[in-house]
Design goal:
heterodimer, A: about 675 residues, Four Helix Bundle (Hemerythrin (Met), subunit A), 5-stranded antiparallel sheet, globular, B: about 150 residues, alpha+beta, OB fold (Dihydrolipoamide Acetyltransferase, E2P), 5-stranded mixed barrel, 7 strands
């Protein structure tokens, strides 16, 4: 079985390498059959990688411990549902997953675009297969998931209990797919440069794929926070760890791109800029993979440090050098067709948005690599922790949120100052009142939090105004019901209103993140059975410890009765699980009681022979709105990406908007 | 960066707007630079080994540092039903007693596990840690778990 999988990977490597060479050669030699064979190669690689992945999955299902990777990440006792998690639970498997999904996406894109310009697509195939060949090389010859054991063990080591969680089924595959999927926009960017097809065509195609990649990477990050929050027991969802930073950086640059790309579509500006953003997003995705693999930066995420770090660094250098050279060569053909007409324009506000995103990523990047830089320069390793990132990112994000309310309302080209003042005065007033309102309620000692709430209120108000104006205008024009008009408004102008829905989701997340970081309550206590503690509105009574067993695991659980405002509202259970084989490393389950207002978050820290137990208790305000905001944002992205069946009707959006601004 | 900004051209009102754009962009760049510099001044922490900390002696120990080392087998002592812990960390160059309270003890913490603690040396010579990170490269391969 191991040989079979290995051969499939090596074959995929060979075909990918062939396609990466044949495709551009076909263009140069004007040989359509070479281009066609590269296209077939893309499809063939997908089949081979699927075979390889299926083989590894089968090895896991059949407990084939002759394969080292299976023996190290699975055991006979492990529940079947976790086999998938074990697949990408280690390095080689996760790289196989990366390569496999890349092969599938490549095939899908190649098929979708099979009637597109064949020169352009040949270069897309070349880029995709070059990246694919790199992963094939690593998987086939450096970090093979099919390496065999010299002696076949009777049982495997099993996955670390920390990973025995549903989140493991969703978060890593989503995040890895998010990294991977930026290869597609990257391939189109490289192809546009190589083929010299730098007109609006490539950017339209790329935008759609970039939105998909952006959504997947965003959801992957969100699921990571959700997993950490539920499993790790420190009461938070984001810790500015290098691994997290590496995952958020490409997403932030990607966010800048999906905004500035609109300026290029509409006005033919920022061509070099957009090209650079796509390239940098991909660099960062590879950099992220490199950081977590190489061990050069200390992270709480303990990855197996391995020999593949230098390979990634070499690959990254090669990619950066070659694509920047290509960009430089094509610079003369990337001239702007237009220029900025006014600072009071959507173009200008999007430019500011881009600068802020870039600055934010620069700060995060700098903080992440700071230990390396300081060691190289001063000889001492200096680290920066979460306080650095919070201090820098907080203000930048507040400004970015405020811009989220400004940008979409700005007219293209040039706005008139007086009409803009009238347009923005009500939401600004609302924002100030909201910030003061929260201040009266929660105190004025955290001005940053109040500023953030104000910015969020501002954006929410602008979105509400836009939606109601559009709906009313439509209702007057067509005589539809309010809901019908709203529905049609959104579906006929899906890009615009999908974007608003995404912004609304981001506002929900921003409000919740601000509240849960500024107003979190935290308390640690040791309780005798029957004793109580109070935190915020809650009162917890410890009902004692209970020990029970499930197959393969011994569980010690603590029960706490929860009262909110002196009324019994339920029981919380938090426990420690001693999995067989991991008895010295119990895994803690957090007890969480979620309500729209806050999460009561209880962690069992330990216990004594006298029956007393100690707890760490948090009250995290509004956390559920982070996850709900994520769902809203994802739904909005879906609306924005939905293919527009009758392109002629897109004009309705432009005219209602013109109307709104004109009247204001 | 510069090359992508709209180029100045012969169109009449362009230079003024270009100037405004540069001012606005410059303000953003300077603002972010200011944020980074001030944050760096207040939140950098030296990352040192046990040996380096011991070398500094009592005088140098009062500074906030990050300390990396392995937990000495048999040295872990739970206090107050696990609300605080005491243990020794060592690396090739020496060992140091650590007292940690006020935060969660990670599940993967244990003997012989590699830890990173942040804090400072107290008057009694014990390292008073305010954060505790644990890693166990030999057994734990949390691939892609990017959300800790």
């Amino acid at each position: 079985m191991a040989d079979f999988g290995h051969i499939a990977i090596v074959a995929a490597f060979v075909i990918a390498a062939y396609a990466a060479i044949a495709a551009p050669l076909g263009v140069q030699l004007r040989a359509p059959e070479l281009k066609a064979s590269a296209y077939n190669g893309v499809l063939g690689v997908a089949v081979l990688m699927t075979v390889a992945s299926g083989t590894l999955l089968l090895a896991f299902m059949t407990n084939d411990f002759s394969i080292k990777y299976v023996a190290e990440h699975s055991s006979r006792e492990m529940p079947n549902s976790l086999v998938a998690a074990a697949f990408y639970g280690g390095q080689a498997g996760s790289l196989l997953y990366w390569g496999w999904t890349l092969s599938l996406f490549s095939a899908l894109v190649a098929y979708q675009q099979r009637r597109a310009d064949s020169t352009m697509m040949a270069y897309v195939h070349m880029t995709l297969m070059a990246v694919m060949a790199f992963f094939g090389l690593i998987l086939g010859f450096v970090a093979s998931p099919f390496e065999k054991m010299a002696v076949v063990p009777s049982n495997g080591l099993g996955l670390n209990p920390l990973l025995y969680d549903l989140g493991m089924l969703y978060h890593p595959p989503m995040l890895l797919a998010g990294y991977m999927s930026w290869t597609i926009p990257f391939a189109f960017a490289v192809a546009a440069l190589a083929a010299g097809r730098l007109d609006a065509g490539w950017i339209r195609t790329t935008r759609r794929y970039a939105l998909v990649a952006w959504a997947i990477l965003g959801i992957g990050n969100m699921l990571g926070g959700w997993w950490a929050y539920r499993v790790l027991g420190w009461g938070g969802y984001w810790g500015w760890d290098p691994v997290e930073n590496s995952a958020i950086m490409p997403w932030l640059i990607g966010t800048a791109f999906i905004h500035s790309v609109m300026i290029q579509e509409r006005r033919g500006m920022l061509k070099v800029w957009n090209m650079a953003l796509v390239l940098v997003t991909f660099y960062l995705a590879i950099f992220g993979t490199f950081v977590v693999r190489s061990g050069v930066i200390t992270s709480v995420h303990s990855f197996a440090q391995s020999s593949i770090g230098p390979f990634f660094l070499a690959f990254l250098s090669l990619v950066v050098a070659s694509t920047l050279t290509l960009l430089f060569v094509r610079l003369p053909r990337l001239r702007s067709e237009n220029q900025l007409d006014s600072m009071l324009s959507r173009e200008a506000s999007f430019l500011m948005n881009n600068l802020l995103f870039l600055g934010l990523v620069f700060a995060i990047f700098w903080g992440t690599i700071f230990p390396l830089v300081s060691e190289a320069v001063q000889g001492t390793k200096i680290t920066v922790g979460p306080p650095f990132f919070n201090q820098v990112a907080g203000p930048i994000m507040i400004v970015l949120i405020a811009l989220m309310g400004v940008g979409p309302l700005m007219p293209w080209r040039k706005g008139r100052a007086e009409s803009l003042i009238r347009l923005f005065a009500p939401p600004v007033l609302f924002a100030v009142l909201a910030a003061i309102g929260v201040g009266l309620f929660k105190g004025f000692d955290q001005p940053k939090a109040l500023a953030s709430f104000g910015a969020c209120a501002f954006v929410a108000a602008t979105i509400a105004t836009e939606l109601s104006k559009g709906t009313l205008a439509r209702r007057q024009a067509t005589g539809e019901t309010v809901l019908g008009a709203l529905g049609n408004l959104i579906s006929r102008n899906n890009r615009r209103y999908g974007g608003y829905v995404v912004h609304l989701g981001i506002v929900m997340i921003a409000v919740a993140v601000t509240a849960s970081s500024a107003y979190q309550l935290e308390q640690s206590t040791r309780l005798q059975p029957g004793a109580s503690m109070a935190i915020g509105e809650y009162r917890l009574t410890f009902n004692g410890l209970r020990e029970r067993s499930e197959p393969g695991v011994r569980i010690v659980e603590a029960q706490l009765a929860v009262e909110a405002d002196r009324e019994l509202v339920g029981t919380l259970i938090t426990d420690k699980r001693f999995y067989r084989g991991f008895e010295r490393q119990p895994s803690t389950s957090v007890g969480i009681r979620t309500s729209p207002a806050d999460d009561l978050y209880v962690v069992l820290a330990g216990w004594e022979a006298d029956g007393s137990a100690s707890f760490m208790v948090f009250v995290n305000p509004l956390v559920i709105w982070i996850w709900l905001g994520g769902i809203v944002a994802a739904a909005g992205t879906l609306v924005a990406m939905w293919p527009q069946p009758r392109p002629g009707l897109v004009q309705v959006g432009a005219s209602t908007r013109g109307l709104a601004v004109g009247r204001a | 960066m510069q090359s992508s900004l709209p180029r100045p051209s012969a169109s009449p009102a362009s230079p003024g707007r270009h100037f405004k754009l540069l001012v606005a962009g410059g303000a953003i760049v300077l603002g972010i630079a200011y944020l980074i510099v001030t944050a760096l001044q207040t939140s950098t922490v030296y990352y040192i080994t046990v040996g380096e900390l011991l070398q500094r002696g009592p005088a140098g120990g009062a500074q906030q540092v990050r300390l990396a080392g392995d937990v000495v087998p048999g040295s872990v002592e739970k206090i107050d039903a696990g609300l605080a812990i005491r243990f020794l960390v060592h690396d090739g160059s020496g060992q140091m007693p650590v007292y940690y309270k006020g935060g969660p003890v990670p599940d993967i913490f244990g003997e012989e596990v590699q830890v990173v603690v942040e804090g400072k040396v107290g008057p009694d010579g014990t390292f008073q840690a305010s954060t505790l990170l644990a890693k166990c490269p030999s057994k734990f391969e949390a691939e892609g778990a990017a959300g800790a």
